[in-house]
Write a structure and sequence with these properties.
mainly alpha; Ferritin; 8 helices; elongated
Length: about 180
């Protein structure tokens, strides 16, 4: 029991530390372990998956208009398309499982990441966008894979499994073009 409390305290401290900084790497690192550790609960998974998609959609919309490179603008289109689809599948699975929910608001960490993107332009926007996407997709991949393996609702496990394939493709795409060019 003591170990569980220590892990929870460490995760909480890391999350708070990540929220207290404007460094996107620190912000993502603060929460990176949380979704993977909390993936057996349907409400936690659904909330985190919906927030992840919401961040991806909003950052993708920004990339379409603010991206300096064609690659970043195209990636923005892909994120909006694919994460809109994964959100729709998540909501349908929740409905089918008798657990409907409204999409939750963005958490302060992801909102801060979007605020950083709003403040960047040109090549600086592209670099920040790609850096955030790498971190966000690593986090989302851990969330979806963890729930697909250990989740408590079959319909959501299926959604998580499918989404993990999409997220893995996005991550490969980001990593292949990480220079922003």
């Amino acid at each position: 029991m003591r170990t569980i409390w220590l892990v929870a305290a460490a995760l909480s401290a890391g999350t708070l530390a990540g929220c207290a900084t404007s460094d996107p790497a620190a912000m993502a690192a603060g929460d990176a372990a949380l979704p993977a550790a909390a993936t057996t609960s349907a409400p936690t998974f659904a909330t985190e998956a919906a927030r992840s998609d919401m961040y991806e959609i909003q950052s993708g919309q920004m990339a379409q208009t603010k991206g300096a490179s064609a690659h970043v603008r195209e990636m923005g289109q892909m994120l909006v398309r694919d994460h809109t689809m994964t959100t729709q599948k998540l909501m349908a699975a929740l409905q089918a499982a008798g657990r409907p929910m409204s999409p939750p608001p963005l958490d302060p960490r992801r909102q801060g990441m979007l605020d950083q993107l709003r403040g960047a332009d040109g090549a600086a926007f592209d670099r920040l966008f790609l850096q955030q996407q790498a971190m966000a997709h690593k986090e989302a991949l851990a969330l979806h894979r963890g729930y697909a393996e250990k989740g408590d609702v079959a319909q959501l496990r299926a959604v998580a499994s499918e989404a993990s394939g999409i997220v893995a493709q996005h991550l490969q795409h980001v990593q292949a073009h990480g220079s922003g060019g």
